[in-house]
Amino acid sequence: MHDVLAHRISLVSMHAGALAYRDDLSREQIRKEATIIQGTSMQALTELRQILGVLRSTPVGEPQDAVEAPQPTFTDIGDLVEEACAAGLPASLTVEVPSGLQPPVAVGRHAYRMVQEALTNVRKHAPGARTQVVLRGEPGSGLHLEVANEPVPVWHSPSASLGGAGLGLVGLTERATIVGGALTHGTDADGGYRVSADLPWPQEDS
């Protein structure tokens, strides 16, 4: 629930902030921002209903995965980065994996959620900071995932950032552990922040 809703709400906050703090937007730009806010809010409500539906319909003791809605995949990570850019975060994506190959479904799904949460954290704590998302790996070597943002721009107003309880980083660590991987996070020497994870990608049987 935290993964999905925090992501959507942070997007709404970013676009609402543009309307609140920028007085140079044209009527068309204002309409575009308002439309994005409306669409993102509706997505959040839809996803919340799906989550509540899972909680209501899952019998006690039955894994929730059995009744979950379709889950995101590794190839959907590009959409996350595009979404972040549309919300005003200067983000880029580098993918270095063998052409036509993807990590196992579970690993790809968790990688998506980890990038989603990491980008949400950047929007909350370092809005406007240039961010790089790197995905690198191959069968037998594992998947390396990295989301690194530069320091908060000097023109950024601290009052515009969103607070947090640290649940996102806890969730990131749990996701890495679930699939047998490991995660590290912390401040870089230049004041930026980096989240790195190494996830398993077994060698395919020949």
TrEMBL record:
Keywords: ATP-binding, Kinase, Nucleotide-binding, Phosphoprotein, Transferase, Two-component regulatory system. One of its GO terms (cellular component) is membrane. Pfam families: HisKA_3. The keyword ATP-binding applies. InterPro entries: HATPase_C_sf, Sensor_HK_TwoCompSys, Sig_transdc_His_kin_sub3_dim/P. The keyword Nucleotide-binding applies. It catalyses: ATP + protein L-histidine = ADP + protein N-phospho-L-histidine. One of its GO terms (molecular function) is ATP binding. Residues 1-58 form the Signal transduction histidine kinase subgroup 3 dimerisation and phosphoacceptor domain. Its EC number is 2.7.13.3. This is histidine kinase. It comes from Arsenicicoccus cauae. The lineage of its organism: Bacteria, Bacillati, Actinomycetota, Actinomycetes, Micrococcales.
